[in-house]
Amino acid sequence: MDFGMPYLLEMQSIEECCALAKELGLDFVELNAGFPACLVETLDPAELYRLGLKYGVYFTLHIEEEFNPFAFNTTIRNAWLKSCRHALSIAVALKMPIVNMHFPRGDYITLPDRRVCMYECYAEAFHAGVVAFRQMCEEALAGTATCISIENTNGWKTHERHAIEYLLASPVFGLTMDLGHSHGVEDADEPFFRQHEEKLIHMHGHDAVGKKHHLPLGDGEIDLAGRFAWAKRCGARVVLETKTIEALRLSISRLPKFLV
């Protein structure tokens, strides 16, 4: 089972991340397009290939957390799709196995007695966006081993699960289980992951206490041994998604006791 690290705020460059990954014996670095050093528009596949060879690592990519290919505004939606196509072209050029995304929740309207999700209310327009996104990804990734992996965040709603199932029906989509996000919503999405276990290809591994996430392994309440065994059984890779170098080092020192 491969383990990797995320791009960290303390890092000054992608090369610095690669050097740390090599020092720690990790297999890959998950670039995060939300950081200036990892902006999709500035990533150079040739330079990333050079760094991968130099440090003996490969890359995955986490596209921007605000990424929304279902936006009702056509100009905004097209801009996101253009950025995503560029990200996928880089991923394909580098043979990245994973491009990770959050499933966008969309806007809510607060009524006197409830909050209404716009994507649920305008289901036809939302579904049209989902269909177009799947088609774009299938065209971009045809004949490659790269997958778009959808990460859980705050507990998927029914209409979101249906949309994700439509995407998962395509071979270019998979699932990322974020352990802390899952723990923070009392594992509300776990039945969905179990139902689609063959699509679990990626995991964000960190500990959590309640809704406090991204703790070093062993500092929280999660059954890490069980989660990592699940990842191993599914052939999923794991990002040790702490937020500091110190926490990452601590997690790696404790990792062996959670591997069965």
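Second entry:
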Amino acid sequence: MKTLVYGSLNIDSTFALDHIVQGGETQASFGLTKAAGGKGANQCAAIAKALGKDQVFMAGKAGRDGAFILENLSSFGVDVSNVALCEEGTGQAIIQLDRNGQNSIILFGGGNQLNTTDEMDSVLSKFSADDVLVMNAEINNLDYLFSKAVEKGMKVWVNPSPITDALLALPLEKASVLVLNEIEGAVLSGLDAGCSFEEILKALVAKYPRTEIVLTAGENGAYYGYGSTMEHVGACKTKVVDTTGAGDTFLGYFLASRIGGKDVKQSLRIASKAASIAVSRPGAMDAIPFAVEII
């Protein structure tokens, strides 16, 4: 079984601040770092670090300024031969990081919004039914990618982040797995954000009966629902340094654990531990732990 992540690659510029900038406010940053990122690239790195084998593939589009991102991914054992180059440049993420480790992110699409259907056909032709596709909403032509992968019989894991009109238009009931945070879960369930995690999970399970639901809930841990099966694990306590990439780390380790034959509860615990380690470190991709650290 091969795992394909077709998603975003970004250059992350992180500004360390006392607090997230408010409208009309000017604030001096006490630190600036540039690093490899993008939800797709981060998820791919997490899966590769967790699996520890050369069965993970990255697809998408980046500029020559993003060459170091591909080098990073390659160092983790990711096959990056399906990443196309463009002259328009790599996607950019401007990240505000406050003293409590919370962030606010501005995205510029760059190459992430220039993927063509011909490129998607070429990439998908290299994969088979029962291979896994991981996708999120930071790239264009989501409907085409989703429909072709489902048609091919691939197991499609969707992380609907960010929530966009293009994402909401997808027939998500055909997804194999939905990995959501509490905000995304509330939006897709149609419930008020003030509802409990259990209520949101039950609504999602009812709405998508053929899809496994994973709901991450920050300090409240993580939830899983499918049919009559409901599971919950608490969060691992840690000092939060930077929450950027925590969800990507969780997804990568949960997927890798399930591929590796672990049950849902074990997979949730492993993914929660991996995410707790990631948030205790600065950065996104570089903060993702290797499997040996989880053990």
